[in-house]
Amino acid sequence: MTNRLHANWIPKSGIQLRLAGVHFDAIRVCGIRGEAVVHHLSQLAEGPVGPVIREGNGCRWTYFLLAPGESVEHEWPPGARKYTRSSRDEYVGVPAPEGNTFPLSWRCGAPEAGEFVDAELLHGVLTAQLCQTVDVE
User: Fold this and answer.
1) Which tens digits make up the pLDDT trace of 19-38?
2) pTM here?
3) Cβ-Cβ contacts under 8 Å for 88 (sequence gap 6 or more)
4) CA atoms of 130 and 127, how far apart (whole Å)
5) Taking the CA of residue 19 as centre, how many other CA atoms within 13 Å lie in the half-sphere pointing to its CB?
6) CB atoms near residue 23 (< 10 Å)
7) Is the pLDDT of residue 5 over 80?
8) Are 95 and 50 in contact (CB under 8 A)?
9) Which of 15, 35, 75, 84 shows the smallest number of beta carbons within 10 Å?
10) What would the DSSP string read from start to end of 57-91?
11) What are the backbone dihedrals phi and psi of residue 76, each rounded to the nearest 5 degrees, phi first?
12) Are 48 and 112 within 8 A, CB to CB?
């Protein structure tokens, strides 16, 4: 058990779906690329990167949680999908801080109230990783 005060939208047990754009926006990246982004973000941020949810089966999606409305401020590269308030409802599964939450888990620990991934930093890392071009001579 920890003494951290988790955000009120995090369930106490299991997994709950949360409507994107209300408590957070999310950027989803597939597989090993998501882990690489977390690694690069932690190096650039020189510490915790903020709330990141990972999926342990299927495509092994990684969800980076941003403050509500921040995802619309950037043009996300192909390979990164944003979840925000839109004309259709979009939900993200949110695991509890502890216990059996398979297939979802917190990559960097459940966030405290008001803690989010830095959208600008995430956008820069994703753009560098997903939009690399090869020079042809």
Assistant:
1) 999 999 999 999 999 999 99
2) 0.90
3) none
4) 5
5) 7
6) 17
7) no
8) no
9) 75
10) STT--EEEEE-TTGGGGS-PPTTEEEE-S-SS--E
11) -80, 140
12) no
